[in-house]
Amino acid sequence: MSAVRRTFPVEGMGCAACVARVENAIKAHKGVLEVNVSLATATARVDYDSSICTPESIQKAVQDAGYNLVIEGTADEVEDEADRSRERFLHDLRRDTIVAGVVAVLVMILAMAFKGFPFKNGILAILTLVSIYAGRRFFISAWKQMKKRTATMDTLVALSVSISFLYSLIISIFPTLLTSRGLPAQTYFESASMITAFILIGRYLEEKAKRKTAAAVKALTGLQPRTVTLRKIKVENGVPVFEEVVVGVESVKPGDIVIIHPGERITVDGVVTTGHSLVDETLLTGESEPVLKEGGVNVFAGTVNGEGILNVKVLKENDATVLAAIIRLVRDAEGSKAPIEKTVDKVAAVFVPVIMGIAILTFILWAVFAPYDGVVMGLLAMVAVLVIACPCSLGLATPTAIVAGIGNGASQGILIKDAASLQNARKIDTVVLDKTGTITVGSTIAENGIRTPDRVKTTTPPAIATLKAMGVKPVMLTGDREEEALRIAAEAGLDEVHAGVSPVDKSEFVSALQSGGRKVAMVGDGINDSAALAVADLSIAMGKGSEIAMDSAMVTIVSSDLGKIPSLIKLSRRTDRIIKENLFWAFFYNLLAVPLAAGLFYLFTGLMLSPMVAAACMALSSVTVVCNSLRLVR
């Protein structure tokens, strides 16, 4: 089996029901091993067997479901095309929103303020058709889903607008259908146009806000320069001469020498051969203090050079840099799903059919039990139910918070592998720490070959104190001798320490804590920590440690600063709180709104919810959920 993981942009998704359709279409495709579709990032992360299926065949499955998968080109090219597509979509959505809004206001003024002028209903019908054309995306999507015998949020919108418009058109042509029964021949063109306008306004604001929650990858991608200054040698009159040539960064190979001028962003992962300068690594590590780079010291793509000139020998291909790895990790993490989100997706998948059933039942009950004007009242109640119960807020509640939380972590140099890791970090009550390279800066070969003892990092004591204040117990495990371990523990402020511990002992110690009901995070940076990292509830690797430790870990601290661990736990707790707030308001909104729209409270209060107010409430609920998630970006 040849397993491949790729993340593809998805076009055409509008709600949680759409996510379920796309996910099920891909999942049913032969050769697909796992799939996660995110509404917040509009992407599908697919693990598949490349010997059985291809991106083209997966794309066909998604297209058959009524959506589209962007697959052409490299990962960066696909992302660039997806960005352009999202920009075009946002531009078109803004234009249609403005048109629908202006027309809706005109229809409202004509319908309410002017009475009895010639061809009033005809003019209203034409204006409403213009509004409907501005919202054509809902009808196109609904038609595609109807052909597949499925329904989404767009189906609800299309049905409600169509019913309002067609009813009004029929009454305009045949008013005696109502006047003969003593009822006013009232039309609802303003409801159809206002529903379209409010839904478009909500969708536009939602899309704008969603883009902010997914800003982390965009910021990281922006750190990748497109060109690099390469130092080359040419021969003139038999004499070798150095020259500077600007080339595309993709053409640089390991072993090449590149020149980094003052103020430039470093383009490669490499080692300084000559020169010295202070380099700002803030956006990569989250640390604000510039780092001195000179001969023999490594530099990383995406960091910013200070005032000196650096000659750097390239060590890695462009797609193998630390920055490229971080971008891939954050992209994968944003496309992953927290356990709670999978439950919400199952609810959303059946939500639309249930709401359609409730809307039909609402109409029937009104028609039966209010024979005088039940048909008209039932029609309005049915439209209000269809509009107000859109599952957008439900579908956005979890993924927007996860994406914003992972992005917040990345901006601090905390790389979280997936949504489950972010969600689980809040439960940690014990942090097990390796000593060398984690609590200390490690040992060094000083002058005359004398080996200096470990030195506790300056950031370690405050980090330990913060963990204790949060109710999290820190424990040190080390293979070092007891005397040295106790000295380090005293300097760091640790109360519990275990010395002379082997890699197997570390793993067994973590398991023993778990058996006692503790939720354990293991923090390490070496190969000897990889077994313990693998069994911990949350595994955290120091970014300056071994690649094996980083591969085993759920979280990587790029700067190797223990102070980031309390930040991670706090971020997880905040993210979990915001997810629960979002879900509460999404469910509470629907539990309250659907009976109100159906007219249940009319029996006691005489209160009915008009379809246009229902549309405004629905749009507001989605925007509220996304804006609440945006609190995590700060």
Helix and strand layout, with pairings?
Layout: E1 3-11, H1 16-27, E2 32-38, E3 43-49, H2 55-64, E4 68-69, H3 75-113, H4 120-134, H5 136-147, H6 153-173, H7 176-179, H8 189-213, H9 215-221, E5 227-236, E6 239-248, E7 257-260, E8 270-274, E9 277-280, H10 282-285, E10 291-293, E11 298-299, E12 304-305, E13 310-314, H11 322-335, H12 339-369, H13 374-388, H14 392-411, E14 414-416, H15 419-424, E15 430-434, E16 451-452, H16 460-469, E17 473-477, H17 482-492, E18 496-498, H18 503-515, E19 520-524, H19 530-535, E20 538-542, H20 547-552, E21 555-557, H21 564-598, H22 602-605, H23 611-629
Parallel strand pairs: 15-17, 15-19, 17-18, 19-20, 20-21
Antiparallel strand pairs: 1-3, 1-4, 2-3, 5-6, 7-13, 8-11, 8-13, 9-10, 9-12, 14-21
Category by helix and strand content: alpha/beta
Mean of pLDDT: 83
Q: State which percent range the strand residues make up.
A: 15-25%
**CATH H-level superfamily title of the domain at 414-558:** HAD superfamily/HAD-like
Approximately how much helix is present in the residues?
Answer: 40-55%
Determine the N-to-C terminus distance.
43 Å
Oligomer: single chain
Q: What does the largest sheet look like?
A: 7 strands, mixed
Q: Report low-confidence residues grouped into runs of 5 or more.
A: 446-450
**What sort of overall outline do the alpha carbons produce when their principal axes are compared?**
elongated
CATH topology descriptor of the domain at 414-558: Rossmann fold
Radius of gyration: 30 Å
Q: Tally the helices: what do you get?
A: 23
The neighbouring-strand order within the major sheet is 14-21-20-19-15-17-18
